[in-house]
Design brief:
alpha/beta, 6-stranded mixed beta sheet, 6 strands, 44% helix
Amino acid sequence: MIHLDERWVSISWDADIQAVLVEWKGFADSKELRTALDAAMDLVHRKRAIRCLGDCRRAGPTSQDDQRWANESWLPRMDALGVRRIAYVLPRSAIARMSLTRALARFDGQVLVQAQFDGIDAARAWLISAS
């Protein structure tokens, strides 16, 4: 079930792993990034999801302001909605990879656990391992 499909991102429900899937297709500016993450949060709410998978292989880098917004606003709201695990498949771009890993290191969730993977299969396996 596709929830949002834009040139920079596709957000859908992955019934096989019972998770919201955010598949980045390329660079997203600040407005696009926040719109996508809010759409993912909307789908989490609708599905009462406890897992998310961010396929960031084709993602571009994010600004420090967007990293701060994700850590201070978006991730705490995801935590409050009941999300317990978010798996990220790391970007291929070295700059985007550094941007994502730096942002993830700053969030200290109460229950929400995040992990980074080089491949989609490992990320999916980790998500379903804690059913």
